[in-house]
Every structure is written in structure tokens, then in C-alpha cells.
Write a structure and sequence with these properties.
About 40% of the residues lie in helices and about 15% in strands. It is α/β, with parallel strands linked by helices. The structure holds 4'-deoxy-4'-aminopyridoxal-5'-phosphate. 4'-deoxy-4'-aminopyridoxal-5'-phosphate (PMP) binds next to helix 4.
Length: about 400
């Protein structure tokens, strides 16, 4: 992407013009959440101003218009991830809720001693729901390790499958190491053993072409707020045959067929899993974020971010004491690092004082921090609107911070 195109994209993000500590802000915390283009914000405002009514509730015009907007987004998501049917696209509060839904509902069929395979690079969102299930049912959690570059040990992955294995659940892209896992190969292997797979796509959905038919996973989850969309919503993709068999996750309005005190029947898919009033305004506005991504092209976005990462990493390696965590051959635009023995918070504060917004800490991946033998890292991550000038500003700020910390 040339500079002019990126500058044009930036114009859709007024927040990028703000200052921090008296300097132009350099926003490099895109892995945590990306910024939101004006068209999404305007759509939210337009709906609250002119359109708001509850969905699936009334015959009145506003309710029908709002329902259409929500369901158009569902169809747009279906196309974005190439799912077979909108029945397989469930709106959630985000990645976290999607995983909890699967662990709780699909997991209700698991028994004591059944084994679930995770990896050491998982976000807490793909660890704790399985531990809650373990506390309820007595399942056993197995964990795949990584090598020094942050690449999954696939040999160990394959060796963990046995007759007790009932599920494998892993991230598509690590939010700390940037490692892009060979998910298609991993799904194929799991399926050859008759084991269903959930993929945490929180860090893949803004940067990759997603094709559920090709990937053939059983479940896939992601969040809108990391895709230039509104906060508070996400998507669970699930294969229809599983979703039909699974019990509801929550009960309430919208998810029922007929209710009596003796017996209740459930709504058809996808509504069976959408109890209560959905976040229909944000769902409708999410449609504009998907337009934003698809107009530029997700592959072009990823290439631009990757160029920025390669440029930055190459220069970071010249800084004395620099330790970069994650050197997988397939890597997303996430750079986790430490300088010598300095604490990540000290580095983060010194960068913030120079207008550079990066993440510090354990990144909701404490088991991975333990595996790496560190308390946390500083993490810089790129999005489509970042520039090479910002990469330079970050590098200069980092050199100054490193010099201060000795
Ligand atoms: N998984 C991964 C890999 C993530 O990076 C995140 C967000 N940091 C999550 C899960 C949780 O996403 P959310 O908080 O939007 O539910």
C-alpha cells in the first residue's frame, strides 16, 4: 500500500490525529483493540437517531427495518467467513463469550476423564472456560508446547490424541507471539481421529481470509472490536449439525419456540443461542466495519502490516539488550519484546511519555509468560492505518527509553 492510500485511510480515523504527552499519538495497541472508522461511528449515531427499535419483536416498520439491518450483517459475516448458512452465524458478546458458549453447551456431553487439547500460547479466554468445565465434569486438559521460535510442537500435538480425546481448541494466531498456527493441518489431523475443533480467531479475523468451508473446523470465534468494529459483539461460527444437537447456553426471550411452565421448546438456529435482546445497534454497525476491511482487501491489509513489522523488527534488533519473543516463519504483525532486565511497565511508561501507546504485561496469557520465564512483555502491534513514519517514531522512542533504562 502506498503512503497516499494509507493517509486516505487515516482520514477515516479522527482519533489518530490526537496527541499524547504533547506529541502526535502513535497507536500500536491494535492487538488489544483496533480503532473504529467514522463510517461505523456514524452508523451507530444514525441508528440511535433515526432507526432504533427492538429486533424480531414487532410488525411495526421500525422493528422490521432494524431486524433487516441485523440480519443483513449476519449475511455479510457469513460471506466474510464463507460459512454454508446464516444459521451457523451466532452473535455473541465477543470471542470470550463464544468460547464459554462452546465449553458450556458442547462441553455438556463430556464426561470425567475425557480430554481436551489446548496449547501453551492460549489467551485466558481459551483456558479458563475449559477449567470451569473441568471443575464441573472432571475433564482433563492437555497442553501442546512451543519451540524457541514460538512455533507449536506439532509432533507433540499429534501424540496427545488418544481414545479419550473429545475436543481440540487453539488459537489461529497468538496475541503475544504473533505465531500463525497451521490450523488447517491441525483440524485435518483432529478430524482423522474423530475429534472436533474450536479455533480462537480473535487475532486472525482482522488480517486473514477466513473460509469455514475450506478450514472445516467445527467452531470458530472472533470479536468485532479487533476488526475496526464496535465493542460488545462478536461471532461464533458453528457447524449446523453440532449447533442443532447442542443445548441452549442461556435462556430467555428470543431463543424460544413455545413456553409453558411444564415445557419449553427452542427457536430455530441461530436464535436458539441468542437469548435476550441482542446488541442490535452494534451488530448492524459491524456491517460497515466489514465493508471497510473488504474494500481495502484483507490480504493487502495483512501485507502492509507485515511490511511494517519486518521494518520495525529489523531495526529493533540493533538496540542493545533487545529480546523479541516470537520468531515463527508465519507471523502476524505483533512484536512482543523486553530490553535487558527492564520491567515491561517501565518501558511502557517511557514510551507513553513520548506519545507511543503499546501494551505491557502478561497479555492475558500467564501460562505462556511462565513458559517463557518472564513476568510480561511490551507489545507493539500494527493495523492498516499505521505508517512507516510511526514505526520510526516508535523506534526513536524505544531507543531513548532503552538508553534511560540502561
Ligand atoms: N483470544 C485471543 C487470542 C485474544 O487476543 C483475545 C483478546 N485479547 C481474546 C481471545 C478475547 O477477546 P475478547 O476480549 O474480545 O472476548
Amino acid at each position: 500500500m502506498d503512503k497516499e492510500e494509507v493517509m486516505g485511510i487515516r482520514r477515516e480515523f479522527p482519533i489518530l490525529e490526537r496527541t499524547v504527552a504533547g506529541r502526535p499519538m502513535v497507536y500500536l495497541d491494535n492487538t488489544a483493540t483496533s480503532q473504529t472508522p467514522a463510517r461505523v461511528v456514524e452508523e451507530i449515531k444514525r441508528i440511535y437517531t433515526h432507526e432504533k427499535a427492538n429486533v424480531h419483536r414487532g410488525v411495526h416498520t421500525l422493528s422490521q427495518e432494524m431486524t433487516d439491518l441485523q440480519e443483513q450483517t449476519r449475511e455479510k459475516v457469513r460471506r466474510y467467513i464463507n460459512a454454508d448458512s446464516v444459521e451457523e452465524v451466532i452473535f455473541t458478546r465477543g470471542t470470550t463469550e463464544g468460547i464459554n458458549l462452546v465449553a458450556s453447551s458442547f462441553g455438556s456431553r463430556f464426561k470425567a476423564g475425557d480430554e481436551v487439547i489446548l496449547t501453551v500460547m492460549e489467551h485466558h479466554a481459551n483456558i479458563v472456560p475449559w477449567q470451569l468445565l473441568r471443575d464441573r465434569t472432571g475433564i482433563v486438559i492437555r497442553v501442546v508446547d512451543i519451540d524457541d521460535r514460538g512455533v507449536l510442537d506439532l509432533k507433540q500435538y499429534r501424540s496427545l490424541f488418544n481414545e479419550r480425546t473429545v475436543m481440540a481448541s487453539f488459537c489461529h494466531v497468538s496475541n503475544v507471539l504473533g505465531t500463525v498456527n497451521p490450523v488447517k493441518e491441525m483440524v485435518e489431523f483432529a478430524h482423522s481421529k474423530g475429534v472436533p475443533v474450536l479455533i480462537d480467531g480473535a487475532q486472525a479475523s482482522p488480517h486473514m481470509i477466513l473460509d469455514m468451508k475450506d478450514l472445516d473446523c467445527d467452531f470458530y470465534v472472533f470479536s468485532s472490536h479487533k476488526m475496526y468494529g464496535p465493542t460488545g459483539i462478536g461471532v461464533l461460527y458453528g457447524k449446523k449439525r453440532w449447533l442443532e444437537e447442542m443445548p441452549p447456553y442461556q435462556g430467555g426471550g428470543e431463543m424460544i419456540g413455545k413456553v409453558t411452565f411444564e415445557h419449553t421448546t427452542y427457536a430455530d438456529l441461530p436464535f436458539k443461542f441468542e437469548a435476550g435482546t441482542p446488541d442490535f445497534v452494534d451488530i448492524a454497525a459491524f456491517s460497515k466495519a466489514i465493508d471497510f476491511i473488504t474494500e481495502i482487501g484483507v490480504e493487502r491489509i495483512a501485507r502492509h502490516e507485515h511490511d511494517l513489522m519486518e521494518y520495525t523488527q529489523a531495526r529493533m534488533r540493533d538496540i542493545p539488550g533487545m529480546r523479541i519473543f516470537g520468531d515463527a516463519p508465519e507471523k502476524s504483525a505483533v512484536i512482543s519484546f523486553l530490553v535487558g532486565d527492564s520491567h515491561p511497565y517501565d518501558l511502557g511508561l517511557l514510551l507513553d511519555k513520548q506519545g507511543v501507546e503499546v501494551r505491557t504485561g502478561h497479555h492475558c496469557a500467564m501460562p505462556l509468560m511462565d513458559r517463557l520465564g518472564i513476568p510480561g512483555t511490551v507489545r507493539a502491534s500494527y493495523a492498516v492505518y499505521n505508517t512507516f513514519e510511526e514505526a520510526d517514531a516508535f523506534l526513536n522512542a524505544l531507543m531513548r527509553a532503552a538508553a534511560i533504562l540502561g
